[in-house]
Amino acid sequence: MQVMKHFIFLHHPRLPHSLTLAQQWARELEQLGARTQLISAWNHKEIQCHAPEATLVITLGGDGTILRAARACAQAAVPILAINLGRVGFLSEWSPEQFDARAVMAETYWLEERVMLHALWSRQGKPFGESVALNDVVVGRGKLARVIRLATYIDDDYLKTFVADGAIVATATGSTAYVFATGGPILAPEVKTLVLVPIAPYLSQLKSLVLPEGSRVLFRLETDHDAILTIDGQVDVELQNGDQVLVQASQHIARFARFQPRTYFYSTLVERLHERCV
Question: Does the predicted TM-score (pTM) go above 0.85?
Answer without folding.
Answer: yes
